[in-house]
Design brief:
The complex is a heterodimer of chains A (about 350) and B (about 220).
Chain A lengths: L6 H11 L5 H13 L1 H18 L27 H36 L1 H15 L7 E5 L2 H10 L3 H4 L17 H15 L13 H10 L1 H5 L23 H5 L18 E5 L23 H40 L1
Parallel strand pairs in A: 1-2
Helix pairs in contact in A: 1-3, 2-3, 4-12
Chain B lengths: L8 H4 L7 H12 L3 H23 L2 H17 L9 H22 L29 H20 L2 H12 L4 H8 L3 H21 L6 H4 L5
The chains are: A mainly alpha (about 350), B mainly alpha (about 220).
């Protein structure tokens, strides 16, 4: 008959025969052993099993397992790392060069971005060229580009507005909170400009009415907003006759320039003069004192993104340079130490 | 140093008597490149290592390979020995080598071409170097039967149980050393040992006729 005891009791008995029980547990188990014959029988069988296992013959090693130097793989000397270190150094240097090249790529594209940003300035210059080509026109017209009211209305009516046709210059989408009268926009700069440049007004020149200005903007929108597009015949777009309005009279006596931000343009007797109010886009309108060569650096978003990329590249470059130098130095030291 | 059975280690493994201090000194010498110092440790523990490997693998050749691999691995990774019982650490290396060998055998099972003995056509299960200096024929037979019964029951145990019971009941390690050797907590050793002994009791009852007479009847109640 085999005694049936719980696994817990069996483990207690197993620890008991190995003298691994604490005193309290051992005392309680011994008290149970006196009362429970099944537990005592299990203990006896466990002791026999243990005795059988301990009576198992012990095997001796069939041979000596001593290690000989021939069993050990040849230890790699430090000199064996020289090729790997050299290759690592060269690879790091090559990656460093590549990173420099990658750094130059955005730098090369920066002028393009700046050129894109400075499109209004170029447009102004092209407008000058257009007006120069239209010198034969009897009445020069200064048209504000991106004027507040006009642009807003253009946007609402034609869908193109002052932006779509203007080459996508960002400043042209801005709407001024305090729009200026159309007459003031046209008459005052003209007079101020003429006073500044000491230019005599062309006989027969008249100031346009607001309605005329708006109509002109709608009619000649392409010519106004896309000055970069060459005129087909080299002549300016037909301009309607402007009429002077009463509210422009005080301005004639004491004209107030509102285009102080527009670069000074040579007198254009015949063609239209395109300008952008500084209030519309003061950020990308270069000041008069700014040389044209420096106007290309106004594209802040593109340049900042490039700077972020360049900062990451510089970190990689530092790491690569460190790896190249360190591994190269270690390789050289190991090489020459081996030779010496 | 004596085991829990009261036997001195030099009587169980009579090559060299080592104590813990000597082991640590030899380890230090070996770490400094003294291969002879490590070989002294090899000679001290190779019987125990081979015995463990043979009990786990139940194959003489595989046990020999595993033992040699274990000593080489121990020498290469001697710096990972952080002190304490070198015997427990070495048995852990041997156990891992045996586990690797068992996994290799499972991936690439082999069948011996000549499994029978040349003389009596029995399978080679008992090496000729059994630790009995001058056994009588009756004793040899009895020892062989006992060995066959024990190894047969050991082979039926799960590997984890087998390793613990070999270390504690056959090799004579205490619980703490066995815990270090298998890399498991002390409670795991106690639990595995108890369950292994229970299974061995059931197994040995079925093989009672193979056991010596003094043990045969006592197993049955």
């Amino acid at each position: 008959m085999r005694t049936q005891i719980s696994p817990r009791d069996w483990q207690l008995l197993s620890e008991y025969v190995d003298h691994q029980l604490e005193d309290g547990v051992r005392t309680r188990l011994e008290q149970r052993l006196e009362r429970e014959p099944e537990l005592q029988a299990a203990l006896e069988s466990l002791r026999r099993v243990r005795a059988v296992l301990r009576s198992a013959p012990a095997y001796r090693a069939p041979r000596s397992f001593a290690i000989t130097p021939q069993m050990l793989p040849a230890r790699r000397s430090a000199f064996s790392w020289v090729p790997a270190l050299g290759v690592t150094s060269v690879l790091a240097a090559m990656l460093l060069v590549v990173s420099f090249l990658l750094q130059w790529v955005p730098a090369a594209s920066a002028p393009m971005a700046a050129k894109e940003v400075s499109a209004p300035a170029e447009m102004a210059e092209m407008a000058v060229a257009v007006t120069g080509a239209a010198e034969q026109a009897p009445t020069p017209v200064i048209v504000y580009w991106g004027g507040p009211r006009v642009v807003q209305q253009d946007m609402g009516r034609g869908g193109m507005g002052g932006v779509g046709g203007g080459g996508g210059a960002p400043g042209m989408t801005v709407f001024l909170p305090t729009p200026l009268p159309a007459v003031q926009k046209l008459a005052q700069p003209t007079e101020a400009y003429m006073q500044t440049e000491n230019i005599q007004p062309v006989p027969g020149e008249q100031v346009e009415t607001p309605a005329a200005v708006e109509e002109e903007n709608y009619a000649t929108e392409g010519a106004l907003l896309a000055p970069a597009e060459p005129q087909p015949e080299g002549t300016p777009a037909p301009l309607p006759e402007a009429t002077e309005i009463p509210m422009a009279a005080p301005s004639e006596a004491a004209p107030t320039p509102v285009m102080e931000g527009v670069p000074a343009l040579p007198p254009q007797p015949g063609g239209p003069i395109l300008g952008i109010s500084k209030a519309v886009s003061p950020t990308f309108l270069p000041s008069e004192t700014t040389p044209p060569s420096q106007r290309v650096d106004t594209g802040e978003p593109r340049v900042s993104a490039a700077r972020v990329a360049l900062s990451g590249l510089s970190l990689v470059q530092v790491v690569l340079a460190a790896v190249a130098v360190l591994t190269g130095l270690v390789a050289l030291i190991l090489y020459f130490s081996r030779k010496s | 140093m004596r085991t829990r059975r009261g036997q001195s280690l030099d009587t169980i493994y009579p090559v060299i008597y080592h104590n813990l201090v000597n082991d640590l000194q030899l380890v230090q010498y070996a770490l400094q490149g003294d291969l002879d110092a490590f070989n002294r440790l090899v000679l001290a523990y190779q019987d125990m290592a081979y015995n463990l490997a043979y009990r786990i693998l139940s194959d003489a050749d595989a046990a020999e390979d595993a033992t040699q691999t274990a000593f080489l691995s121990a020498y290469r990774n001697l710096r990972s020995f952080r002190g304490g019982s070198f015997r427990a650490w070495l048995l852990r290396v041997v156990t891992n080598a045996c586990y690797d060998e068992l996994r290799r055998q499972q991936r690439h099972p082999v069948t011996a071409l000549e499994p029978v003995h040349e003389e009596d056509d029995d399978e080679i299960e008992s090496p000729s170097w059994l630790a009995d200096e001058s056994p009588s024929p009756e004793q040899q037979i009895e020892t062989r039967e006992l060995e066959r019964a024990i190894q047969n029951c050991l082979d039926q145990l799960p590997l984890d149980f087998r390793t613990v019971v070999i270390m504690v009941d056959i090799q004579g390690l205490d619980y703490q050393e066995a815990s270090l050797a298998i890399g498991k907590p002390l409670g795991t050793v106690k639990s595995r040992l108890a369950r292994a002994r229970l299974r061995l009791r059931d197994c040995l009852e079925h093989l009672a006729e193979l056991l010596p007479a003094n043990l045969r009847l006592d197993l049955r109640e």
